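Re: the request from the purification team.
They wanted to know what the chain is likely to look like in 3D before they choose a buffer screen. I agreed to run a prediction and write the result into the notebook, where they can find it.
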Amino acid sequence: MTSYIAAIDQGTTSTRCILFDHSGQVVSQAQKEHQQIYPQPGWVEHNPLEIWECSQVVITSALNQVNLKRKDIIAIGITNQRETTVVWDKSTGNPLYNAIVWQDTRTKDICDHLAAEGGQDRFRIKTGLPLATYFSGPKIQWILENVPGVKSTADKGNLLFGNIDTWLIWWLTGGPDNGSHVTDVSNASRTMLMDLKTLDWDDEILNILNISRNILPHIVPSSDKATWGYSHKKGPFQREIPICGDLGDQQAALVGQVCFHPGEAKNTYGTGCFMLLNTGIDVVHSTKGLLTTLAYKFGDQPAVYALEGSVAITGALVQWLRDNLGIISRSSEVEDLAKSVEDNGGIYFVPAFSGLFAPYWRSDARGVIAGMTRFTNKGHIARAALEATAYQTREVLDAMEADSGVKLKSLKVDGGMVKNELLMQFQADLLNVPVFRSKVTETTALGAAYAAGMAVSFWDSLEDLCVNWQMGKTWQPKMEDSRRKILYKGWLKAVERSYSWIE
């Protein structure tokens, strides 16, 4: 019998189920988008029940595409959009509010209030994170303070919180019928509630935010032979399969790119853009605006940490060109439109729609297009939108090299935008290092599969996983250094123009 690992990749805009074989190749996959909800400026929400429904659809579709029996699936891994916050009634499974998405900025006043009493880095030593609207903790506090019925549900002992990994695992393992309420260390490290060293919820921070430990999931390793639960027979898998892999999406991509040694880095180009640098078992605190985060923990082995540079808007900017401006009808058209002009025409697009993330952490910033003239056309806007992703990556890389003391020699990339040849070449030019794309581009889902597969000995060691990695394509830098410096100087000037739009 041939065996496979199922990975559920629940992202910001869609949910996928991908089946992998032992060589790490995709056997089958299915994908379904879900609605983006914008109640008011700065607010971004998802319907948790829609996400669960999409998950069931793609699981069934992926299994039905190929001649597989459900018994051929020996383990399930989960990867997810991080920080997105859900609270629900454990007796019914009903969400008490829409999921508040990681991009949402409604908790700015909460964060400002917390910072007023201890500075933006008030919790950084414990959590590795600055006070920012990005993280789950302030979102939980906002829901507790503003959504009717939440406190009464908590008083009855029925309130549960989770990021999307927790929400899906709870439903897959039975939901109201004794579903497993867990999260892994990588996701827990994104709540601003977990101590990086103890790998447990921090009571002092919980007290400051008025969050009860009782509503929080149990923190487990990212890959765990002592499985947290089995898929429910009445669920989409229709049989009991161990769910034993769980990683936040960016950490999953780090694992999928087999960056297992300190100094190895990857960059994921999705809705946002996220660069992670493996720092090994050492907690490295940033002085340059980066995040210190859990990379992964495999079973009883020591936890591995990473430095992360998070950029809020990259692929989402292409969607904005499609949905809000209508200058393209499909996201894939942006490259041809950008190629219709020789360069950006002197314009820069700073997509600070949710403020600026790393390395600035400016929640007062907003998006700007700088340098426009009558010469500017939609081709220039499209090109500037793509280039914005590369510029933001350069800023993160500069900060990462300063913090770590490690000079990057190459960059492994993944995510939906790496199919864009124009962007990848510009990225190599701007960084002045080779950019490598793996043969299997679904590295986020692959990382979740690796975590689950390691737990059931489908793969025996990290070396087995490294053997699976294969080169897909390389982009070598071609730009002259003088040109690189001029372009980057213009970008930094444009970023300054985005500051202080929100008082």
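For the purification team: The mean pLDDT is 92.
Please add any questions underneath this entry.
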